[in-house]
């Protein structure tokens, strides 16, 4: 009995060691070999298209891989160029127009405050009878000086913030070497994909191979379904934003729509980070029709997303909502926003490992039910 417990403890240590080594290898691989990790993932995504060219157009594996990789690189380059151009235009528009808009907002607020304070001043003056014309002019001058200083401070603060964002964008560590290595690695991984799979299969025990063979297929189906659902949600929100801003006759509709689409990807943030401050600004600046329009547009986006999201995601995650919520919160506590983005994929991976039977296989190994 004691020997059996020792063997079980030893097997448990082996399983924990294997899990720890796997996580450590994945972490170190991403830290030091991230171009190759990204290239491997892209190569896996490009395999159906490469195989399609091989079967339908009777092309060689090398030439089909070259065509698909070049097309993918051109598509991504065009996409990022479009995003970069629109981002530069948006930042330039904000840097040139926002200070003036902010000054008008501060003038409007101070004017309203002055209108509200003047009757009170007259009442106080009537009650106390101590404020003469000189003091009244002094109070008016003080309000104007305060208004000018507040406008200058807010405009300077916003200008510094926008300059910081511009500098951060300009100083992004775009490593040309890593980009070239990643493209070459994607080509070689894609070309030799069948050989890589053969090597992995030859080094993997048959029992694990039979159980683990279900993992890539289920994981690919689940992640593909989740990505399709998110793309549908984001495209729907983007279309609503574009139509709504066009109806409201807003300048730079395309730039604002692209920024809102990018923000909409972040969980629990969404487009509210854009529309709520914008509506508040419009209200305090006296643009009540714009405030109503933005509020209605944001409400339509939120309601549409709340109606579509459960239906689109429920069939793909297959986990209780409370577990998904716990995973999102834990990911945010550990890694911040990146953790919230990655946690659904981690949950899906764990679920796939469970449904594939690997957890049962590990349990059987620990208990000694399986040699």
TrEMBL record:
Domain of life where this protein originates: Bacteria
Signal peptide range: none
Location(s), subcellular: Membrane
Segments traversing the membrane: 9-26, 32-50, 62-85, 168-189, 226-248, 254-276, 283-303, 323-350
Keyword Cytoplasm: no
Pfam family, one: AI-2E_transport
Cellular component annotations (GO), alphabetically ordered: membrane
Keyword Transmembrane helix: yes
GO terms for biological process, alphabetical: transmembrane transport
InterPro entries, per database record: AI-2E-like, YtvI-like
Record keywords: Membrane, Transmembrane, Transmembrane helix
Recorded topology in the membrane: Multi-pass membrane protein
Sequence similarity: Belongs to the autoinducer-2 exporter (AI-2E) (TC 2.A.86) family.
Protein name per UniProt: Sporulation integral membrane protein YtvI
Organism: Halobacillus locisalis
Phylogenetic placement of the source organism: Bacteria, Bacillati, Bacillota, Bacilli, Bacillales
